[in-house]
Amino acid sequence: FIAGEFSTFNVNITQAxxxxxxxxxxxxxEIRHSLDEDFRGSCVRSRSDHLPYILHNETGSSLxxxxxxxxxxxxxxxxxxxxxxxxxxxADASTTFEFPTKRLTIAENSEEIHQLxxxxxxxxxxxxxxxxxxxTYFRLARCSTSRVADSNFGINVRLVxxxxxxxxxxxxxxxxxxxxxxxHLLDPILLILTCGSSKVPETSIIRVxxxxxxxxxxxxxxxxMAVKPDGWNCSKTHEVKWQEAKSAGERINKLLKFDIFxxxxx
Length: 266
Prior knowledge:
By secondary structure, the protein is of the alpha+beta class. Among the domains are: 53-101 and 111-177, no CATH class; 180-240, no CATH class. It has four helices and 17 strands.
């Protein structure tokens, strides 16, 4: 049906039509307000998919990471220098980052995933890790060839990448070592970590408060470990041979005795 410029449009004005028109006119401002609220709400909800990520560095060393995993892998396969942008994060610091917009708007590609490549200072970059799904992931970090001569860095270590979601819906990526110490005592303890050669050892003394958890710095992930209670005027330490646990889920219990003047601390 095509109407001409001067065509006549016949309308029957009924009492029901007038009542509907009056009711709509009275409710027009309310309808407009409701539409505005729905529109703003939909805009806010759609923005939640593009919230920035947060990366926590708990390795005890500075690290760098990149979201341009395809570029890094392609450059490696073609043996050329990568043009990927790397983000620097100091030890015990956090960095907010986002994936490129072009990756977020490709709705037709259902296989599009968000990945990171991480490089901790002293170790080579790890294989890509997916940060889309909440979970715990493990990657092997090989000792950097530039640090092989340094006995404190001449080891391969396991990295733990934990992906969680905060109350605002943002993904939180925490990177740490695979060695964890939990103090179940009612008193603080001193943890003595020693790594390196016997000629030039490196030692770190860390205080662990009661009921607290310590993620051992990556540099000491294979270190020898000794422990003693803090605040008890105890000079002697006891070695904890944590390497004796060889298989997953294996538990080794040992009772340690500290002689403190005329009392004993077990």
